[in-house]
Amino acid sequence: MIIRLIFIHHLNNLILIMTKPKLLVAMSSIPELVIELLLERFEVEIFDFENATKKEILNKVRGKFGIFCCAWTKIDEELIKNAGPSLKVIRTMSVGYDHVDLIAMKKYGVRLGYTSNISSEAIAETTIALLIATSRRLFEANHALKTDGWKQSLFWMCGRSIRNSVVGIVGCGNIGISIAKKLNTFNISQLLYTSRGEKPEAKTLGGKLVTIDELVKQSDYIIVSVALNEDTKCIINRKRIAKMKSHAVLVNIGRGELIDQGALIEALRENRIGGVGLDVMTPEPLPLDNPLMKMTNVVLLPHIASASIETRTEMAIVTAKNIIAVLDNTSMINELQL
């Protein structure tokens, strides 16, 4: 009798192991501790979407309970439909979710989570770094130093100070507020921002709510940190670029499609604005023959605003815990209500 009970116990454990739901991790560089956490509850398959064909991706998603992905993982209706009714959650390790077809998610009843607040500080740090690098011509000066272009001249490689300047933040959510707090230490003369309504925290920092057209016209430095959607696509368009000051510096850490890149390139070629710092662009990766690559008043980063070890690790852990929360039929942190 005892032997039979032991056998049944082991058999039940074996069945539980065999019936673990399947989870697809759509990238290869995930911390081991996160994979170990997921393996406790899921049958985990790691398959990097980056260099895979659409056919390979569609085969991999079939029958999965969840997909652990990031900002460069395109989640469209074909993928969601092909996964089948087993698909319950897609959790993206990113602030934005413009790479996900929200209509299809709602249609097929799949829950979506994202990492909204975790990366705000890291992104704000990168924004300030990009602003200084562009305004003070740091990359240009570094290149001159390395190519025997160093000149002993009083005004050589002079850029503009942030102190006493007008800074405008397009989109003042968590990231925008964090940027504003850091800008406060630079003794700027005025902080402008756009938002659906007045933000008490921004007001406390001396911020003034204005329209997007007022902001681009008055600002010496313009920081784009708004989420991408149908209303904000090309929010920095040809007409608004034309309103900018001739020395204005534009920094974008949101999404590439927030700016009319063709109009931006024209303005830079004609020296109608001072410079640009971009962590995001269109497309990504940017082709090596793109005009932005050759311009001295442009600083480009490969979409690394949140790329601190601590931040990315925390984002991955929270993403894993939230997928487990769906399995347990509990609420996720930062779940998008579709």
TrEMBL record:
GO cellular component, one term: cytosol
Positions of transmembrane segments: none
Residues annotated as domain D-isomer specific 2-hydroxyacid dehydrogenase catalytic: 27-336
Keywords of the record: Oxidoreductase, Pyruvate
Keyword Transcription included in the entry's annotation: no
The organism's place on the tree of life at top rank: Eukaryota
Pfam families in the record: 2-Hacid_dh (PF00389), 2-Hacid_dh_C (PF02826)
Entries under InterPro entries matching the protein: D-isomer_2-hydroxyacid_DH (IPR050223), D-isomer_2_OHA_DH_cat_dom (IPR006139), D-isomer_DH_CS1 (IPR029752), D-isomer_DH_NAD-bd (IPR006140), NAD(P)-bd_dom_sf (IPR036291)
D-isomer specific 2-hydroxyacid dehydrogenase NAD-binding domain ranges (all copies): 128-305
GO molecular function: glyoxylate reductase (NADPH) activity; hydroxypyruvate reductase (NADH) activity; NAD binding
PANTHER family: 2-HYDROXYACID DEHYDROGENASE-RELATED, GLYOXYLATE REDUCTASE_HYDROXYPYRUVATE REDUCTASE
Family: Belongs to the D-isomer specific 2-hydroxyacid dehydrogenase family.
UniProt-recorded name of the protein: Glyoxylate reductase/hydroxypyruvate reductase
Annotated source species: Aphis craccivora (Cowpea aphid)
